[in-house]
Structure formats: structure tokens, C-alpha cells
UniProtKB/TrEMBL annotation:
Organism name: Amphritea balenae
Protein's recorded name: Response regulator
Sigma-54 factor interaction domain ranges (all copies): 135-364
GO terms assigned for molecular function: ATP binding; DNA binding
Gene Ontology biological-process annotations: phosphorelay signal transduction system; regulation of DNA-templated transcription
Length: 456
């Protein structure tokens, strides 16, 4: 989390100027980081995002304005003040038109410098970032994704969010909606892998009265319900191919036709989709339409697994303790450093969702105000006994079954397909889906000879 003292990154290829400005600003209560070139400054920003950048305009190689434009790519809200001995009104006008907060000339007046910096910091704090408040992070990697999300939110393009299960894809989709011009409209989410095909079609597009058995009333679909807002299609990779055609038409033509109806309805909806599957592999296997993939994947946001953002584990743990304590056990006030250390060392294959489950369990069971190491160890051990989701259980069974029949047939796909009562093409698709290859199950001549020798 950010320190109470704002961090100022000073960039200048003059070591004397760097020293003077560092002393002045540190004496005024700021934390200071320095860089002697623009490329070095970009590396500093990646390591820890400052609250403000104070940069010289004229530097060898990459100058101050080029640095500003590069920083804006990933940090559009980061304020920057330019300083130069070659200041002029045209330079200042050009810089401020491009988004630079302030423009100071050397020799720098100390009071003017502090006024400009404080004004820039105050302006930055006043910017509304409530759109991302549900995503708890201090990870540079995750903040980079959020900056990308903010940039794309203002457009109306389709976004595909990818990443492992439990990384917060729906939270990111909702954040994009809140940062968009559609934020006053509805945000509606549906899991495309959780419903059978007929029900999913009816949920998305609606149905007419009498369209099928049980359709006793007309039903408005989610495309209509999300009018003027955002429709989030989670686990889009699990959508049946027959429905993918109808979805493509709805996105391209902005019309939907309810099941059993002859009437088409215009819709104004932004579609954000998500999947943990590799859709490119699914396309190769004929399980996902290529034209739909490119329609959905105008912009791709790939969310990192929790193991790639370890600095977020203590932050998230404390947040979940606070949230869970309100709901389940108000006497819990915190978590011990040792317990946090255990959490930080865990693998978290279930990502943020698994971490939340572990913390919620410890809060519910805690008999003291501070969650202990023992409770955390017990909760992590119990995760192995937690019932998985239907999709995860099905995938686990499929892989286990395929592995077993491939071992039985020593990698002979034709024989394995016969045992499974699937045609050879479908069986190959299943193997590819689970990253299994026939070669890994074949018995080598060397192993066979050794087995005969042992048997003799």
C-alpha cells in the first residue's frame, strides 16, 4: 500500500540538479526517487509507481516529453511536471495541451515548485477511481492491467478477459463497465458453462410464449435486459458451437431474435467476455468459431495468477479478514504476522477465490481476536477436501479417464477411442484439450526388454 508520504520521481541528466531538488523536496516531507535518464525513469516507474514525476525537458536521447508520453501509456492518471532552462510559452502551451500538469523554468523558485507539486498531487487525489475500488491490489502487474482497462473502457469495443479461474475476471469486467460511458446502464453477467444449451439460448436471447414445453410466458433475454449497459459472458469458451453463430449475429448486427419468435429486436449492448480456456486451441479443435473469437477479442486483458502478484497476498488477506469478520465473527480484528507469512508462501492454485475461502474459514473458526498460524495451516490443509466446481470436477475426471485408457492401450489412440466409445477425431480433441500426447504413454523397447529380463 502507498505510504502516507507521496513519492516524487525526479528525472534529470544533471547530477547537481538531482541532488538539489532531492534535498529540497525531502526536506518538505516527500519521499524521493531519482533517475538520470528517461529510460531509467521508466524502469523506476515499473518498480514502484510514484505519485508524481518531476522531469527535465532537455535530456540526451529520450527527452522529457517523450518520457511523459511513454508513462501515459500505462499510467494515464500519473501527474507530471516539466522543468527546463529553455522554457518558452510555445513549449509550455504544447506540454499542457498534451496533459503535462505544470511547466517550470530554471532557476526554480522553491515556493513555486512546492505550490505546483502540491496542486498536482491534490488534483490527482481528486480523480475518481471508484470504478476500480472492488479490485484490491498493489501489484505493478495488476495495476498495469487496470490502466489498460481504464483506457479501453471509454471506447465501445469488445473485451476478452483471460486468465486462470479465481483471478477476478468478473470484477475486472464490472470495473470496465463502471469506468465506461455506460456506467449508468445495467451490468449483467451470465456463466455460459453453467446452463444447458436450450436454457442458455433462452436466457441470452429470450423466448416467445409457447416456444417450447414450459414456455408459458414470453421471456425477455439478457441482451434486452442489458440495454444501454454491459453484458458479461463468463466462460465463453464453454458455449455450444450452435449458439456461437447466434451470438456472433447479435454482436455484429446489434439485433436479437427470441426463441420461437419471428420478430427481431434492436439492442445496444457492450459485450465483455471471459474464459480460462485457450480459445486458440479450441478454434484449432473446431470447438470455437474463429469469426466469433476475433469479434470478441478486439482487446485482450490477461489477468495474472496470484503467484505472479505475491505482494498482493498480505493486502488481500487483511481485506478478506475485515470483510469476513463483519459477516461472521465481529470479535476478529486481525491476522498474525506468522499467519500472513504462511499465506504468502502458499501456492494458491485456486488464486484469489481460494485465498478468500481460506481466510473466511479462519475467521469463522477463530476463538481469539487475532487469527493464528495454526488456524491458517488447518484451513490450507482443508482446501484439499473442498468440493470443486462442476466444471473443474468434470475436467479432472476427463483427464484422469483419458490417462487411464491411454495407459491401458500403451498410447494407441484408435484402441483407446474404441474403449471410450468415441470416434477417433473427437478423442484426439479431448487429448489436446488436456495437453495429453500418445507418445508419453507408449512403452519404449528398452523398457520392454527390461521388463522381460525382470520377468525371466
Amino acid at each position: 500500500m502507498k505510504s502516507a508520504q507521496p513519492l516524487i520521481l525526479i528525472v534529470d541528466d544533471d547530477a547537481g540538479i538531482l541532488k538539489v531538488l532531492s534535498l529540497r523536496l525531502s526536506a518538505s516531507g516527500f519521499r524521493i526517487d531519482t533517475a538520470s535518464s528517461a529510460p531509467e525513469a521508466l524502469q523506476r516507474v515499473k518498480s514502484e509507481t510514484p505519485d508524481l514525476v518531476l522531469s527535465d525537458l532537455r535530456m540526451d536521447g529520450m527527452d522529457g516529453m517523450a518520457l511523459f508520453e511513454a508513462i501515459q501509456e500505462d499510467h494515464p492518471a500519473l501527474p507530471m511536471v516539466i522543468i527546463t532552462a529553455h522554457g518558452s510559452i510555445p513549449d509550455a502551451v504544447s506540454a499542457t495541451q498534451k496533459g503535462v500538469f505544470g511547466f517550470l523554468t530554471k532557476p526554480i523558485d522553491k515556493d513555486q515548485l512546492l505550490r505546483t507539486i502540491n496542486s498536482a498531487l491534490e488534483s490527482a487525489h481528486q480523480q475518481d477511481d471508484s470504478w476500480r475500488s472492488a479490485i484490491v491490489t498493489q501489484s505493478p502487474l495488476m495495476n498495469e492491467r487496470l490502466n489498460q482497462a481504464e483506457r479501453v473502457a471509454k471506447s465501445n469495443v469488445s473485451v476478452l478477459i483471460t486468465g486462470p479461474s479465481g483471478t477476478g475476471k468478473e470484477l475486472m469486467a464490472n470495473a470496465i463497465h463502471k469506468a465506461s460511458n455506460r456506467n449508468e446502464g445495467p451490468f449483467i453477467a451470465i456463466n455460459c458453462g453453467a446452463l444447458p444449451e436450450q436454457l442458455l439460448e433462452s436466457e441470452l436471447f429470450g423466448h416467445a410464449k409457447g416456444a417450447f414445453t414450459g414456455a408459458v410466458n414470453q421471456h425477455e433475454g439478457l441482451f434486452q435486459a442489458a440495454q444501454g449497459g454491459t453484458l458479461f459472458l463468463d466462460e465463453i469458451g464453454d458455449m455450444p458451437t450452435t449458439l456461437q453463430v447466434k451470438l456472433l449475429r447479435a454482436i455484429q448486427e446489434r439485433i436479437v431474435r427470441p426463441v420461437g419468435s419471428t420478430r427481431s429486436i434492436e439492442v445496444d449492448v457492450r459485450v465483455i467476455s471471459a474464459t480460462h480456456r485457450n480459445l486458440e486451441t479450441a478454434m484449432e479443435d473446431g470447438e470455437f468459431r474463429e469469426d466469433l473469437y476475433y469479434r470478441l477479442n478486439v482487446v485482450n486483458l490477461d489477468l495474472p495468477p496470484l503467484r505472479d502478484r505475491p505482494e498482493d497476498i498480505p493486502l488481500l488477506a487483511r481485506y478478506f479478514v475485515e470483510q469476513s469478520a463483519r459477516r461472521h465473527n465481529p470479535k476478529v480484528k486481525g491476522i498474525s504476522p506468522g499467519a500472513l507469512h504462511i499465506l504468502a508462501q502458499a501456492a494458491w492454485p485456486g488464486n484469489v477465490r481460494q485465498l478468500e475461502n481460506v481466510v473466511e474459514q479462519t475467521v469463522a473458526l477463530s476463538g481469539s481476536p487475532i487469527i493464528s498460524e495454526g488456524l491458517v495451516n488447518q484451513a490450507i490443509a482443508n482446501q484439499d477436501r473442498v468440493i470443486p466446481s462442476f466444471n473443474d470436477a468434470r475436467a479432472s475426471f476427463e483427464k484422469s479417464y483419458l490417462t487411464k485408457v491411454m495407459h491401458i492401450t500403451a498410447g494407441n489412440v484408435t484402441q483407446a477411442a474404441k474403449i471410450a466409445q468415441r470416434n477417433r477425431t473427437d478423442f484426439y480433441k479431448l487429448l489436446n484439450k488436456h495437453d495429453l500426447e500418445s507418445a508419453q504413454f507408449k512403452i519404449s523397447p528398452k523398457n520392454t526388454a527390461q521388463n522381460h529380463k525382470k520377468a525371466g
